[in-house]
């Protein structure tokens, strides 16, 4: 991980320990480049707080010819110009402000890309639901919900998202006629264009319906 913010490093390190991922922290691009020259890593996390160092490290990784390239995770503000800052190599973006659950959900996604066993802090149910995503109270997207939990969902989009200020997801759960709506925050985006959202400010009726549906449809152990 390349990051200069001690609080961010501590938070990411704590989540990585919970997921069974060993994290090596590098405060500068130079030390990170030296580590990559000596050791193979499955992934790298960079922070847009130090865009110049991130670009230096990622350019060095992309130019390397020794073996398979690592998966790249960017921690970034929602309005960050990712292509300009990080180049074309980013596989997953986890959006700020960072929290324990947001990081865990995002790093869970990168574990799936790495082909490792999925660990969840909350149960998610795989679904195939057509839904409507409203961006900034004006632009409506038809999306597919890929999985859902009581706290959020993973979505498949047919076109890139514009700059996001507000999100609202509207859908009907399988077997339910009632359509429900919740505000959401953008949590992560992966290389396939899928995004993860977190439900926010949802009302009691929404929470009760999703909770009851999850209890009835969660996979049995």
List the secondary-structure elements in sequence, H or E: HHEHEHEHEEEEEEH
Side-by-side strand order of the widest sheet: 4-5-6-9-8-7
Query: What's the helical proportion of residues?
Result: 25-40%
Number of DSSP strands?
9
- What structural class do the secondary elements suggest? alpha+beta
Tally of distinct domains: 2
- The backbone outline, from C-alpha atoms, is elongated
CATH-derived architecture of the largest domain: 3-Layer(aba) Sandwich
Could you list the spans in which at least 5 consecutive residues all have pLDDT below 50?
116-121
Mean pLDDT: 84
Q: What's the end-to-end separation, in Å?
A: 35 Å
CATH top level assignment of the largest domain? Alpha Beta
Strand content: 25-35%
Q: Report the CATH topology name of the largest domain.
A: Rossmann fold
DSSP helix count?
6
Radius of gyration equals 18 Å
């Amino acid at each position: 991980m390349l990051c200069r913010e001690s609080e961010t490093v501590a938070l990411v390190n704590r989540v990585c320990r919970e997921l069974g991922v060993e994290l090596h922290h590098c405060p500068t691009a130079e030390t990170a480049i030296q580590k990559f020259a000596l050791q193979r890593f499955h992934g790298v996390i960079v922070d847009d707080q130090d865009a110049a160092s991130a670009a230096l490290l990622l350019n060095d990784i992309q130019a390397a010819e020794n073996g398979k390239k690592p998966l790249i995770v960017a921690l970034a503000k929602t309005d960050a110009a990712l292509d300009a800052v990080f180049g074309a190599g980013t596989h997953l973006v986890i959006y700020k402000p960072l929290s324990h659950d947001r990081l865990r959900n995002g790093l869970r996604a990168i574990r799936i890309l790495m082909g490792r066993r999925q660990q969840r802090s909350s149960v998610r149910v795989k679904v195939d639901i057509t839904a409507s995503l409203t961006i900034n109270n004006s632009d409506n997207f038809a999306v597919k919900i890929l999985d859902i939990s009581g706290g959020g969902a993973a979505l498949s989009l047919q076109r890139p998202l514009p700059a996001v200020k507000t999100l609202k997801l509207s859908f009907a759960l399988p077997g339910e006629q009632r359509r429900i709506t919740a505000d959401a925050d953008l949590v992560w985006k992966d290389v396939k264009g899928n995004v993860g959202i977190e439900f926010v400010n949802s009302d009691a009726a929404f929470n009760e319906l999703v909770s009851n549906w999850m209890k009835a449809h969660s996979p049995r152990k």
